[in-house]
Amino acid sequence: MTVVETDRIEMADSSDELTLDMLFEWLERMPVPEGYKVEVVEGTIHMAPQRDVHWDIIADIYDQLRAHYPRKRIKSDVRIDFPGRLNGFASDLTALADGAAKNAKGRWRYQDIEFVAEVISKDTAPNDYGPKKAAYAAAGVPVYLVADPYTGQCHLYTLPKGDEYRGELTLDFGDPVDLTGTVVGLTLSTDEFPRD
Description:
Strand content: 25-35%
Helix content: 10-25%
Oligomer: single chain
Order of helices and strands: HHEEHEEEEEHHEEEEE
């Protein structure tokens, strides 16, 4: 990614504190390649390509969530700002509560999230297991699922408290992910999750 000279000057001359909106405005002017997901995690811009395996798992989870959630309450790669310094995530899948509303800036509120799923990409895996997991917990996201096609495992995180999840379960692809005791209220099949 190349920073345009005027952007460097703008950044150098600005005495204002960096904001998520500023970062995303700069990103909108950058030539981000098609098929790449862009997020800001703790003030750092991350880009990762969408791969077939990645998308197949997302689509499988989406199809299963539709049994419980209307289409308009499931989001993919949509910016939502989270607690912490400069956290603007575009989660692979986000399920919103009934009655969820956008904030004054026209963005979905993290307070209305019931479920987040992230599918691991090699370059951004440390974010999904680290700062993003902490931010989701701090936001009170009740159910966070990480699908890792490299290990063939799902990691389920529940019971957020502070910036940690108190409930953690690891399952192999092929094992059902029982979410019936959570706000999601269904069991996810992982039988068709591909491995990378």
